């Protein structure tokens, strides 16, 4: 009944919108999203698709963070084995743990364990979805034209195979740049830095050694993350499943970056670069924020947010930060819901939420203190505001490295930094003009494009729905075994031929030598013996 | 004086056009073109750039084939050491030789020698340009914003370095896919077929062996073609020059293909795929051709052209072809300037020129007999007309293979085919509906794009002029030596470490063994000797 109601809602929204836009596209898209910040980019694309008259069904776990109702899509809700309190508790622990001290030897293990607090929950979500007979039967009957998913975790990837649907992936590249790793896009370790290494594309020899080894370690991480999903897929599909082979079936990869941000590297024809979809034209500020900005005077403002995943900072760290913020002449707008640090200076305004893009787009924005998630980085780029980066987890350390390499910001280790470090970093990016110039250069390069990234994303989702896939973009590499792909059988064969030729040539030489000189030798010998 | 006149002409055209379009872009582009069919795509882009208000100077040898005057650009003419008769004679020989019989063992040599008839002349053209003090001084004083060239031969590439200009290349990929070979774009020989092999992207084991070897041979061909230019570049630049290093400085590669035509493979972020710029909406036919088409009745027409480079066909071959054409019910419009074959049937109309795209765009077009140059192929794709392909030289054999693999046409060996072969091929592509369906599918995929390829090409030339290059798209691979790029130093180092660890571990074991058992052994021995 609930399904019917949702379907009806979706239908009525589609009819309303198509009447509004004068065109019934009539395509039906199934969306398997990733909750959390990943959803934000996907939502923008879905809303635009809905406005173009497509019918959209989003698969939503009954307990979730951001997957709210919308007039743009119908939600198909499925049960999960945890409650709202557990979800919030896990996210809180996840956020909090980024501030716990870690040591060189256990850093990787700590990071992995912390990620698993949330990732483990997502596994339960996926397991619940793929075993929910009601949802599966709804999906089988759904007659969708394509599936749109975030492939950071493979639930949507498996469902596309189950439903036999062409698919479009929306992805930042984390974890493990699996858009390249799983799809055989060449990634020479000599200049393509691996995640977590924090290297740039110009590496020293020891860095290249580490990067080479990191490439091998990636396989272990991928196995740890995904092997369990292979079991889920096997149960659902009734056959042994190789997860990379499923990922290779993606028709289009919409990559949430471009090469103003990411280092240039080999890519494949079915990858479309749509970095910056989240950048919007800055709107007029509300009275509250307009008042803050106006009061900031000639010094302007600094915007400070560590994103939606981090609500609390340990008190001693918050005090260190507050101390640093109090030492710059700018007004700081700090999005923070934790306990107010007792040493908070007058120039620092704590807010529960802030219109980040609109503030960054204001001419008085002087710097942006960010955790360097890809959305924040792009808002910094779009609005040309120099960055002070306090990366916390995931791709954030590597994102920060990319912007630092381009001279558009300064990175600090949030665990190790002192109050003075933050103060200096802020003063540097504000007063050293090169930072502003560099981020303005990136901004102008990023904005100078033949088509808006959001339009490009929408185009390719529609393309896949129209043509039932994009098999003409599928490289033949996907039909080769690993040793064929690397031509190892060819090299082996050629080596065998060369060795055979050398062997035969040697044999011939020996034979010829014996023919020519063997008898003479013997003759000579016999002469000699006669002489004796 | 002549230069001034040209400059003035260019200026007045630019002012006129900018007034017409209401925007003075004010950028100045230097064009170093390649004469012959390559020029056709470049001309389209230049005309659009001129219409957008840019000032364009095209470097033109005083003796040329297609580089005619135009209101869209100023020509800067430089002297060459040959006359019109020699030029035409070389092209005639080049065209004619494609019909001379060749044998397996000397095929490559014959093809190379034949190409050198024209390529050798282009070398003289380039030599003359790079040694012409007047032209060089004109260029140095020109204050250009960028250089636009066809890099099939490296004259423009060298000039970009000499003038210190950012550059945009327009290229089909022939010879030797140098957009990948020279720029370190990974091209696994297991599924990326080499030119001249006529392989598809799905190769058998023997084909993969041949393709692997062809990759090695490519280097020899490149050396044969380009080493002489390194001397020219050294003389001009006053320093030893590595030609691939110059090619790597290209800011943008505009590739005259897309992946409806080409096999999907790794590419680089500074490559833009603009296949199909030459396709235009079919115009209304002239009275002469309209009459032919109308008279063709329900059977429709077949369009036949071997391109602008081939004017004559040996008589016996022309008769074979005429014989086959007479055996199909369609009216054949054959662009042919040679002697009329005596057996020409009534359904075959010989014309000196034909509006190829407009005829292919007519609903009565049933098939297109083409030499499968990339322009013709794209006109076939755009208009959805099945192909009978008679490839003659260069990339044409490989182009034909691409279309044949997609079931959109049939390839014949023009030297070996009989009249019956051609007749059968025509009947097949016309009567077997799969050919029409396949090329219509390619057509719909090719035409379904977010932006027109010509607009995309113009955008990127303007981008490079606006930003004085596109260094943000330059991969760090270009700063590595060959052994660093392939991580050979890293692998060597790690192997050394592994060997050292094994060696030390073994030594330790031996030492420990001796410590533990050595004495006992000796003790036992001494016991034994005592016992004795």
TrEMBL record, chains A, B:
InterPro entries in the record: UDP-glycosyltransferase, UDP_glucos_trans, UDP_glycos_trans_CS
Keyword field contains Membrane: yes
Enzyme class, first EC level, given as a word: transferase
Recorded catalytic activity of this chain's protein: glucuronate acceptor + UDP-alpha-D-glucuronate = acceptor beta-D-glucuronoside + UDP + H(+)
A GO cellular component annotation in the UniProt record: endoplasmic reticulum membrane
Residues spanning the signal sequence: 1-26
Keywords tagged on the record: Endoplasmic reticulum, Glycoprotein, Glycosyltransferase, Membrane, Signal, Transferase, Transmembrane, Transmembrane helix
Compartments it resides in: Endoplasmic reticulum membrane; Membrane
Transmembrane segments: 490-513
One of the record's GO molecular function terms: glucuronosyltransferase activity
Superkingdom of origin: Eukaryota
UniProt keyword Ribosomal protein, yes or no: no
Enzyme Commission no: 2.4.1.17
Topology class, membrane: Single-pass membrane protein
PANTHER family recorded: EG:EG0003.4 PROTEIN-RELATED, UDP GLUCURONOSYLTRANSFERASE FAMILY 1 MEMBER A1
Family indicated by similarity: Belongs to the UDP-glycosyltransferase family.
Protein name listed in UniProt: UDP-glucuronosyltransferase
Organism of provenance: Catagonus wagneri (Chacoan peccary)
């Amino acid at each position: 009944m609930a399904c019917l109601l949702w379907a009806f809602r979706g239908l009525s929204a589609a009819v309303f919108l198509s009447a509004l836009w004068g065109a019934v596209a009539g395509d039906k898209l199934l969306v398997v999203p990733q909750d959390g910040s990943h959803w934000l980019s996907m939502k923008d694309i879905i809303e635009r698709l809905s406005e173009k008259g497509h019918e959209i069904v989003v698969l939503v776990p009954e307990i979730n963070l951001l997957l709210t109702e919308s007039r743009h899509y119908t939600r198909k809700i499925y049960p999960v084995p945890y409650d709202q309190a557990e979800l919030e508790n896990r996210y809180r622990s996840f956020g909090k743990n980024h501030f716990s001290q870690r040591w060189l030897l256990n850093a990787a293990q700590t990071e992995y364990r912390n990620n698993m607090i949330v990732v483990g929950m997502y596994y339960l979500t996926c397991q619940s979805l793929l075993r929910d007979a009601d949802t599966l039967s709804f999906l089988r009957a759904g007659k969708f034209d394509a599936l749109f998913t975030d492939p950071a975790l493979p639930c949507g990837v498996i469902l596309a195979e189950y439903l036999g649907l062409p698919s479009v992936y929306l992805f930042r590249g984390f974890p493990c740049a699996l858009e390249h790793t799983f799809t055989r896009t060449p990634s020479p370790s000599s200049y393509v830095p691996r995640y977590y290494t924090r290297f740039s594309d110009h590496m020293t020899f020891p860095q290249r050694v580490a990067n080479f080894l990191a490439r091998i370690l990636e396989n272990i991480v991928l196995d740890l993350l995904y092997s369990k999903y292979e079991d889920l897929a096997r149960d659902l599909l009734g056959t042994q499943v190789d997860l990379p082979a499923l990922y290779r079936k993606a028709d289009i990869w919409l990559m949430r970056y471009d090469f103003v941000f990411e280092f240039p590297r080999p890519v494949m024809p079915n990858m479309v670069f749509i970095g910056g979809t989240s950048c919007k034209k800055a709107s007029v500020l509300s009275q509250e924020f307009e008042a803050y900005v106006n009061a900031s005077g000639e010094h302007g403002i600094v915007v400070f947010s560590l994103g939606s995943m981090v609500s609390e900072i340990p008190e001693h760290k918050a005090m260190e930060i507050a101390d640093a913020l109090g030492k710059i002449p700018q007004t700081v707008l700090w999005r923070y819901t934790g306990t107010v640090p007792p040493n908070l200076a007058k120039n620092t305004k704590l807010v529960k939420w802030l219109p980040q893009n609109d503030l960054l787009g204001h001419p008085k924005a002087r710097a942006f203190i960010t955790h360097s998630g890809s959305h924040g980085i792009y808002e910094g780029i779009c609005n040309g505001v120099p960055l002070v980066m306090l990366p916390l987890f995931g791709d954030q350390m590597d994102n920060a490295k990319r912007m630092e390499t381009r001279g558009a910001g300064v990175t600090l280790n949030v665990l190790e930094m002192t109050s003075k470090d933050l103060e200096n970093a802020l003063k540097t990016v504000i007063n050293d003009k090169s930072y502003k110039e560099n981020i303005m250069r990136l901004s102008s390069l990023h904005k100078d494009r033949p088509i808006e990234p959001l339009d490009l994303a929408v185009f390719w989702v529609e393309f896949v729905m129209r043509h039932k896939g994009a098999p003409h973009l599928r490289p033949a590499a996907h039909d080769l075994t690993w040793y064929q792909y690397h031509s190892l059988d060819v090299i082996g064969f050629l080596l065998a031929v060369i060795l055979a030729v050398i062997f035969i040539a040697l044999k011939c030489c020996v034979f010829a030598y014996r023919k020519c000189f063997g008898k003479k030798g013997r003759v000579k010998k016999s002469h000699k013996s006669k002489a004796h």
